[in-house]
Amino acid sequence: MSMNDQIIATYWLETALSLEQASEIIVSEQSTGTFLPLPNETDSLKMSHRARIISIEQLDISSFPSLPGAKVPPGSKSEYRRGIVKIAFPYANIGPSIPNLLATVAGNLFELEELSGLRLLDLELPRQFLQRYEGPRFGITGTRELTGVHGRPIIGTIIKPNIGLTTDQLRQIVRELASSGIDFIKDDEVHGNPPYAPLPERVKAVMEEIERAADRTGKKTMYAFNITDDVDPMLRHLDTVVNSGGNCVMVSINSIGFAGLAHLRKHAPVCIHGHRNQWGMLSRYPYLGMSFTVYQKLCRLAGVDHLHVNGLNNKFYESNASVIDSVQACLTPIFNPTDTALPVLSSKQWAGAAPETYGTLRTIDLMNIAGGGIHAHPGGPGAGYRSLVQGWEAALEGIPLEVHAASRLELKQALETFGEK
Amino acid sequence: MSMNDQIIATYWLETALSLEQASEIIVSEQSTGTFLPLPNETDSLKMSHRARIISIEQLDISSFPSLPGAKVPPGSKSEYRRGIVKIAFPYANIGPSIPNLLATVAGNLFELEELSGLRLLDLELPRQFLQRYEGPRFGITGTRELTGVHGRPIIGTIIKPNIGLTTDQLRQIVRELASSGIDFIKDDEVHGNPPYAPLPERVKAVMEEIERAADRTGKKTMYAFNITDDVDPMLRHLDTVVNSGGNCVMVSINSIGFAGLAHLRKHAPVCIHGHRNQWGMLSRYPYLGMSFTVYQKLCRLAGVDHLHVNGLNNKFYESNASVIDSVQACLTPIFNPTDTALPVLSSKQWAGAAPETYGTLRTIDLMNIAGGGIHAHPGGPGAGYRSLVQGWEAALEGIPLEVHAASRLELKQALETFGEK
């Protein structure tokens, strides 16, 4: 089996058995094997189709199990060994299909009683996956071209309030934002196609305002319409956006699945803005689920151009270290330099956050989205946008915020309003 | 807001705040609200679109958090309150869309730092969801008609070994099984459309054998072909199966997502056999994720006819109590008596398991799938199937297995081979 013919999955696991035994059980469960010997399970079949343990690295031992229902061998101590295990699955068992890949590398493994903890940490895929998945259509370069933003992060906002605006109220907000020349606006993920404000009506109003503002400012704001839905309605929403001159759609990736995302990528001539809501369900408990490393690879392969990664000092549970890792993961090529996705920083973002964000991440290939930090700016959302641009100017030029703010009203107001009192 | 105009989500939650505060944060996060007051967030908007707490039931207090990253208010003791909270979301915010429903009732909630545990326990949906989702096309009654099995569970097997059989080996196995008159056969979930044995080739071989056996026995075995894949290939595989006379397809639900499942339901004139692999990732840690109650409702609404529920005394971590609950959930109507799905019992199933299964579950509306228990039967897989039928005869008639086995060779052999020594 050459490197090109295998899929390598890296797991963190915990077991009351030996790490070797537990790894063998994973191999049997997900390639060939059952609890009884089988007539057709020949040696030659096993040779070609059985997965294979590449390496086992022992870590610490825990005195209690991280997950319930784990089996302890009779007579053994209550000790749960932890380790990192790499397993190679034959590519020939699967083919270039993310849905089938998941049935193998994840499958029933999380339910095994021989394991008291399991997390899929990484996946190395052979290039055959490129036969089906083309990765981001626009990615970072394409998004910069469409927005005309160079030399700094792309700055945007979420429509707020999340839900409940009439189309006319939405129109007013977009008018003000687009007139200010803001780079990017997105729908909230809880706002899809609700009965009281159907998407086609909203798309029409938003695009009229964006085009009108572009005529005056020369800059066309990118708007990510939330087209999350079942497959056919999602593609209908996509058509609505494209036919109205929109250049971006947003989806809740976990609502439509990787299969839905790959399907959208095939049809979408516009940017795909990927929201990762529901991600906490797959990841917050450290001894179960999947790492963001794996998740973002599959999202990018399936075609997202932008991917949410939370923000530094966010309102969620996630540490800054984890956010930093996520940003770096999105910016690391998988197969090609163009298959990176723009990391989207959001949550508690505002003008004053730029220096720490830049100082920590040392990249401008970011999308920086502020909700309250733009909408609640005392000068209005347009001023809120300008304050973020000014905050990033200061960050990139290494000028203290207060110094830069001396001659910039919007940044000054932002520091007064949102800064630490 | 009338009962028909709301979606009621029930959560188990854990928080270092009061349950009331934590519930209000959920409401704000997923309906209207941000960390700063917003100009357009009027009282009338909140009235129509804000979610609302229906009830809060206090449970125990834990001295440590179930999930990492939870915030403890300054000066407060390290106490984590647990409770059951019901929240009503306005249907008007969402519309009849499972993908958008999930972005609201799950969304970012699992990542909130104000929560140290969150599990979605139940969902009550208004009938408007029936506008889009028709539920199972065949369900229990339809599956019985297609298989011709009445008065007992539908008995079947998985193709084993899981992976690696040539199409010709597969043909031999199916020939023997179909000749024995077995009710049902399914592909393994790790076997989709691999390069070495493409689905079209397998479908042709399998259906030839099934039709040939049916000509002799008068009974057409139902075969669930694993068509799990991205959207277009999945529908191509569906066409292959339908055009070859197949009457069932299988999907890994979590690989294609609820959106993929609903899309398949729209196109499939055949039974949909739902495999829940990857489910452990969403459910094994009791303080995160979602209950099977919620999961199976969404699966059924989106259109599964059969749904895997593990088996009693299974090889996985799951308790019998949990399996029993799952079976009952699948058999409980949501909107209509016909929207139940056939619970599929698998894992460590064999002839001798029937009496306990029937004694515990008290229903015959089951699919009972045995892998090793059929394939490793000393008389061959055909004898394995007959042993399960005989085991169920004994269970249903209340006859001890050994007594029934006295005049039934296959059951006798099964008891000798698989019974406790």
Give the helix/strand layout.
Two copies of one chain form a homodimer.
Chain A: E1 6-15, H1 19-30, H2 43-49, E2 52-62, E3 80-90, H3 98-105, E4 117-124, H4 139-147, E5 154-158, H5 167-179, E6 184-186, H6 199-217, E7 222-226, H7 231-243, E8 248-252, H8 253-267, E9 271-275, H9 279-283, E10 288-290, H10 292-302, E11 306-308, H11 320-330, E12 342-345, H12 354-361, E13 367-370, H13 372-375, H14 381-397, H15 401-405, H16 409-418
Parallel strand pairs in A: 4-10, 5-6, 5-13, 6-7, 7-8, 8-9, 9-11, 11-12, 12-13
Antiparallel strand pairs in A: 1-3, 1-4, 2-3
What are the low-pLDDT stretches of chain A, counting only 5+ consecutive residues below 50? none
Distance between the termini of chain A: 62 Å
> Would you tell me the structural class of the helices and strands of chain A?
alpha/beta
Approximately how much beta-strand content do the residues of chain A carry?
15-25%
Kindly report the oligomeric state of this protein: homodimer
Strand order of the largest sheet of chain A: 5-6-7-8-9-11-12-13
> What CATH architecture label of the largest domain in chain A applies?
Alpha-Beta Barrel
Looking at CATH, the homologous superfamily of the largest domain in chain A is Ribulose bisphosphate carboxylase, large subunit, C-terminal domain
Sum up the overall morphology of chain A in one term: globular
Give helix % range of chain A: 25-40%
The arrangement of helices and strands of chain A along the chain is: EHHEEHEHEHEHEHEHEHEHEHEHEHHHH
- Biggest interface, which chains? A-B, 104 and 104 residues
CATH class of the largest domain in chain A: Alpha Beta
